[in-house]
Amino acid sequence: MDFDFSWLLLGLPIAFVLGWLASRFDLRQLRIENRQAPKAYFRGLNFLLNEQQDQAIDAFIEAVQNDPDTQELHFALGNLFRRRGEYQRAVRVHEHLLGRGDLSRADRDRAQHALAQDFLRAGLLDRAEAALQKLEGTRYENEARLSLLAIYERSREWAQAEDVAQKLDESDQASYGTRRAHHLCEQATERVAAGDLGGAGRLLQQAVALAPEAPRPAIDSATLQLRKGDAAAAFDTLAALSETAPLALPLYAAAMQQAAVASQRSGEALALLQRRYVASPSIDVLEAIIALGGTPALPDDAPSDAAISAQPRDGYIAHLAHHPSLVAASRWLAGERFEHEQFHPQVQRSLDQATRPLMRYRCAACGFEAHQYFWHCPGCQAWDSYPPRRVEEL
């Protein structure tokens, strides 16, 4: 059977027309999608500027569906999810980005950093730590180290925290010497609890070398020296500290008094405490003076009615003459005898209850109050944010 070429001549124009129509349809569809994507993007941007985050998310999702290859839309959508507290959706967006093979190195680092932020905000510290460690050597390195430092400090992993702080210190972005000294002091505290006094001493020596003017390494060193029975060395350490950090004296006045009594240097300690009390009166310094059997020295311009007797307890009266204090008044009344002595215990209990909140320390950064002095605030995680004075004296 011979082939009829007339069908071929007829089919070629038909194929051409069908191809042309198909191309026109594809181009039209592409134009429609390209017009829809920018519209959805700008609509989402408008919602975002008007703080309508729900509508903005819907618009960006539409834009991503129309143009799934656009990285910026994915980043915007992931950040919106994170701000909304929808951390699982943010994680999925950023993990999807990291799973793409066509992503540039810069965008991959950016997605890794965004994923780490998702985990941090969600409180998934283990996964955040792993994500942050992958940013070593990238432009997000220092930011990642700061976040790692916060994680290690919050979880009380002091050795890892000190390692990260050392890297930050070596990067010349800021000085982390005092912070590293805190980390070493925390490790020393753990060594003392474990009975390793020698190891604790070596750590404290490193802390003193890192931050020679910071009060904590010296205070912890003196406490360790007292524990070892070397009261003379403890007193020398604290006496030297009173020259470099006199404002922190209320924190170690009691330890100085104990070291002075144990090393038979009460007179030397009393003179030092009285001199510091005149410059900066404090209830803690006052009580150390009274415990040593002395009375607070008065300033040169003290009024004549501020005279006190030789009784150490009357030091509270001298303090009250210049610094009205419910705590000092309660301490003085505790040792006095009155006409209705049978009611004195009830009155004293009431006074003690009233003065207990006044004896707290308060964080200057977040206002967290505690009876114990904290170098690292449990509330806001800030270092050295507690003034060394009680609430009543602020």
From TrEMBL:
Pfam families: TPR_16, Zn_ribbon_LapB. Residues 361-385 form the LapB rubredoxin metal binding domain. Keywords: Cell inner membrane, Cell membrane, Iron, Membrane, Metal-binding, Repeat, TPR repeat, Transmembrane, Transmembrane helix. It is a single-pass membrane protein. It is found in: Cell inner membrane. It comes from the Bacteria. Fe cation binds at C363, C366, C377, C380. Residues 24-394 are cytoplasmic. The keyword Metal-binding applies. InterPro entries: LapB, Rubredoxin_2, TPR-like_helical_dom_sf. The keyword Transmembrane helix applies. Belongs to the LapB family. NCBIfam families: PRK11788.1-3 (NF008755). Modulates cellular lipopolysaccharide (LPS) levels by regulating LpxC, which is involved in lipid A biosynthesis. May act by modulating the proteolytic activity of FtsH towards LpxC. May also coordinate assembly of proteins involved in LPS synthesis at the plasma membrane. This is Lipopolysaccharide assembly protein B. It comes from Variovorax ginsengisoli.
